[in-house]
Amino acid sequence: MMILVVNAGSSSLKYQLINMEDESVLAKGNCDRIGIDGHISHKTFDGRTVDADVTFPTHTEAFMKLVEVLTTGDASVLKSMDEISAVGHRIVQGAEVFDRTTLVTDEVIQKIDDLQELAPVHNHPHALALWACKKVIPANVPQVVVFDTAFHQTMPAKAFMFGLPYEDYEKYSVRKYGFHGTSHRFVSAALAEAMGKDIKDLKIVSCHLGNGSSITAVDGGKSVDTSMGFTPLDGILMGTRTGAVDPSAVTFVANKHGFTPSEMSDYMNKKSGFLGISGISSDNRDITAAAQNGDKRAQLAREMLIYQIKKYIGAYAAAMNGLDAVLFTGGIGENSDDVRKEVCENMEFLGLKLDNAANDGVRGQLKKISAADSKVEAWIVPTNEELLIARDTLALVQGL
Ligand code: ADP
Predict the structure, then answer these.
(1) In a designed cystine with 31, which of 13, 119, 314, 382 is the match (CB 3.0 to 4.6 A)?
(2) Is 148 considered catalytic here?
(3) Please, is 198 exposed, middle or buried when counting C-beta atoms within 10 Å of its C-beta (0-12, 13-18, 19+)?
């Protein structure tokens, strides 16, 4: 049972081929610079590689090359694409149309494309990739779509509505959707398993901290609130994104700079966050190093991050009327022991106490990091969105 997992952007097509017998990755890579020139980097489980410049005018040529490297040449891992049971695609925005993993039909691809206004950078390229995949992959191989937003469709209206006139929700679908749903679903389930508890009995705050960061309140296995909003800009300070800002500050700054709405959006998405506050970098490692060297603005960026994460943990504990565990995932959450430590400091009032020795120096492993007498547990839970997409895809096609 092999599942091909695809994560397509406007100019890239990342993929993993997963053997579902043991959930191991047989090969992974990226067809990059689609529509510009083209490059493929491909690596097999046993270290064979392809690194080549190729012409990729569209996603179709990228899929053709992907099929070629998987099935022929020195770094092939399949005899033919018929060995693949299904293809699972990551889709960013499913809005209220898709609340679960779905089998791809022409109508489904069209609906994903129709949502492009709600995710301009992502959904149209996803649709292009789905059409291309349909053209290139044998017709008997089912395709499945897994949505970043689907996990958050369980949020109640009181959590997902903005205080704008209700007609804007009805007419334009303006509301909080939340993102990173596949990651929050994967890590919260993995945590319940690690704790030996039924997820239905757990109240979890899931902190996915990377270049993009979001925090989700998971009550009984369901997302009840999340920090990202209408787009992945809301919530906490990120690499280059603002996180939450008073909307009046947005219109004020746009006026001062003479920005159009799309220039202002660019400013908030690409020039803000760690980068904007520090003036140094969007990368947590650079910010941490600069802060340690005494750079005041880098120190401020870190302090803002830690403070904002703490506030979400407190808020979501209140929203859920309790808290059993806080988990850290994503590039920062999995690797940055200092961020985890500072977030968990002075949280005894909430019943959360870190075991510093268990936390220090730990990177990318599933591990409990709270003290034995901590009422609320803290864990590092490495995320694996591709694996969850593969599991979902397999479960759906097995049920066909
Ligand atoms: P994305 O949101 O793009 O998937 P990642 O989840 O890969 O991003 O997270 C990237 C962030 O993780 C960067 O800010 C990076 O500095 C941070 N990071 C990665 N490795 C480490 C590490 N060893 N120590 C501290 N931070 C790290």
Answers:
(1) 13
(2) yes
(3) exposed
In angstroms, what is the span from residue 256 Cα to ligand 1's centroid? 33
* pTM for this predicted structure: 0.96
Burial class (CB in 10 A: 0-12, 13-18, 19+), 104: buried
- For residue 336 and ligand 1, the question of a CB distance below 6 A is answered with yes
β-strands 325-329, 367-368 pairing: unpaired
- Strand-pairing partners, residue 61, are none
Contact 77, 47 (CB under 8 A): no
What would the pLDDT profile of 155-201 be if each residue is shown by its tens digit?
999 999 999 999 999 999 999 999 999 999 999 999 999 999 999 99
Cβ contacts of residue 116 below 8 Å, gap of 6+?
A: 123, 124, 127
d(CA 91, CA 227): 19
* Ligand 1 atom nearest residue 383's Cα: 6
Please give the DSSP secondary-structure letter assigned to residue 376.
B
Angle 148-153-155 from CA coordinates, rounded to 5°: 125
283 is written with which tokens? Answer: 């990368």
Q: Which of 209, 283, 284, when mutated, tests ligand 1's pocket best, judged by the most ligand atoms within 8 Å of its CB?
A: 284
User: Which mutation among 209, 282, 285, 359 tests ligand 1's pocket best, with the greatest number of atoms within 8 A of CB?
Assistant: 285
pLDDT in tens, 70-128: 999 999 999 999 999 999 999 999 999 999 999 999 999 999 999 998 987 899 999 99
